[in-house]
Structures are given as C-alpha cells and as structure tokens.
Specification:
Elements: E1 4-10, H1 14-25, E2 32-39, H2 45-52, E3 57-61, H3 66-80, E4 85-90, E5 93-95, H4 99-109, E6 113-122, E7 125-131, E8 134-137, E9 142-145, E10 160-161, E11 169-173, H5 174-180, H6 192-202, E12 206-217, H7 228-245, H8 253-267, H9 274-292
Parallel strand pairs: 1-2, 1-4, 2-3, 6-12
Antiparallel strand pairs: 4-11, 5-12, 6-7, 6-11, 8-9, 10-12
Length: 301
C-alpha cells in the first residue's frame, strides 16, 4: 500500500482536535502516519495530543501561520519522510473509517487525478451535504460548493471531475506537490485550496470528487463564523485568485462581476445592528485596500 500522511492543522479548539484525531485513529488504511501541526495554539493542544495520542507526530509552530503555511509545514515533513500521498484535514472534522481507502483506491484507478476530495456533510446535521464538488461561477466571480444544504438522497454518488476540492479535506499525490509546489502562503486563509487545484489543473492533473469517501465538518468554527476577519480574507483573496488565474486584459468580466458583488455587499448588509454592519463593511474595504497595496499573509481586522 502507498504510504499516506494525514496532516491535521490545529489552532486552538482542543476538543475538536481530539475528536478529529480519535476518528483518524479508527481509519482502516494501515500504511499511514498522522501529523498534528499546532499553529501557535494557546489552549494546550500540543501537550494534550502528545498525552492522548502518542502515535501522532506533533509539530509546533511558534505562531499562527495560517492555513496555507501551516499545512505546508506538515506536508514538507510528510514528503521528507517518504509519503506517497498527503491528506490535508481540518481539525473540526470527523472522518469515515474508509476515507483514505476510498480516496487512494480511486486515485489508483485515475493516474491523472492530482487532487481528490470526499463528500462532506454538516456535523450537526449528518445527512445534509456541505460539499459534493465545487464550481467556479463566472457570473458571480466566486466559487461555490455543489449540493450545499441538500439532504443526501443518493444523488452525487458517482466519481466526477470537479473544478476544485475544498481544503477542509483533500488528498494529493507526491508528484503533484513536487511539480506545482506547496500552498501559496500569501492567501493565509481562504482561496488557497482553489488556487492549488487550479495550479494542478494547469499542469494537466484532474480534480476528482469521490462520494464514497465521507467527512463530517463543524462548519466555520475556525474563525467563529462569518466574522469581519472572514470577510476581509474572502475579499482580498478573491482578488488575488482572479489575478493569478484570469487575465484582466483578455477578459475583464470576472473582475466586473466581483466589483458588482462587492458593491452589493456594501449596500445591503443583512446584519442586525449598525455596529455589525459597519464592522463588516470596514473589513471588506480593508481587504480591497490591502490587495491594492500588495499586503498579503496575516492580517487583523
């Protein structure tokens, strides 16, 4: 069996991390290593994991490096120690026992598959879909999950090509990382997974959705929901992604759709208080400013 490394990135949320690792421990794929990358947690995550999961290799970052750079630390360790596949997994997930077995099996059947993703459900509503593939929507200049919010009644049951695989749970091969490189740390949080998939596709790899593999996700616990910080990164990184994958001179439509959507958000903010609306608008404007001034990576809103 090819060697697979499971990289779990954690930034606080100790209880979620422990539950995630307990589910990873029950995976039926034997040739695997689990790597916990502690992204500067302040709640004793690293110590607790070492005590309760001695078989897990723990790497401690001195500070929060973000999703991209934090996962890069885990991937570099995995590849240096002989991993053929790397599974990136959010710490606020619980996985099906045959998650990796299904993904690796499909990868073996499709040599051109570079990045593969499972069907992902809401943790609090275990039969309701959160991700069943991903689509780029030019008319809104954004990406969206296929099937989000629908009860799983058996549709989305075939392995299909997808525009992107969400970074919540994805599997990639060693040759893909060696060819396209690691995640782009400029994103810090959000859009780095879409960027990675498009870079892989540019090199001739396909992204596949594998519904037999299943994960349950505690959606948006990492930033506490759609906070101003969330809106900042979504705005700034959406523009960075457009810059990398859509030539403004050749086709300005995605940029026009983005501008229309942002103006709509600034005008019609569906939040209960004036203070919350102002904070969200301010975060969007800061995202636009920092993109214009080329300020990427970590930010505080």
């Amino acid at each position: 069996m090819p060697a697979c490394a499971v990289v779990v990135l954690a930034w606080n949320n100790l209880a979620d991390t422990l539950e995630c690792l307990e589910s990873v421990k029950r995976l039926d794929y034997p040739n695997r290593e689990t790597i916990l990358v502690d992204n500067g947690s302040t709640d004793g995550t690293a110590t607790a994991v070492r005590e309760q999961f001695p078989q897990v290799h723990v790497i401690e970052n001195a500070r929060n490096l973000g999703y991209a750079a934090g996962n890069n630390v885990g991937m570099e360790h995995a590849l240096e120690h002989g991993a053929d596949y790397v599974m990136l997994l959010n710490n606020d997930t619980v996985v099906g026992q045959d998650l990796i077995s299904n993904l690796v099996e499909v990868a073996g059947q499709h040599p051109d598959a570079g990045i593969l993703g499972p069907k992902i459900y809401y943790y609090d509503d275990p039969n309701r879909i959160w991700y069943a593939g991903g689509k780029w929507r030019r008319e809104h200049a954004r990406v969206h999950h296929v099937g989000v919010g629908r009860l799983d009644t058996g549709e989305s049951s075939e392995v299909v090509e997808t525009d992107y695989v969400t970074g919540c749970a994805l599997l990639t091969r060693r040759p893909v990382v060696e060819r396209i490189g690691l995640l782009d740390p400029r994103f810090f949080y959000s859009w780095e997974d879409v960027d990675w998939c498009y870079r892989a596709r540019r090199e001739g790899y396909r992204c596949l959705f594998v519904p037999q593999a299943k994960v349950w996700h505690k959606v948006n616990t990492g930033l506490g929901g759609k906070t101003p910080t969330y809106w900042y990164y979504i705005t700034r990184n959406n523009l960075l992604w457009l810059e990398k994958h859509h030539d403004l001179v050749l086709d300005d439509r995605p940029y026009r759709h983005f501008a229309k959507r942002i103006l709509g958000s600034l005008r019609h903010v569906d939040l209960p208080s004036r203070e919350e609306r102002w904070r969200m608008r301010r975060a969007i404007l800061l995202g636009l400013r920092d993109y214009a001034f080329r300020r990427f990576g970590d930010a505080s809103c």
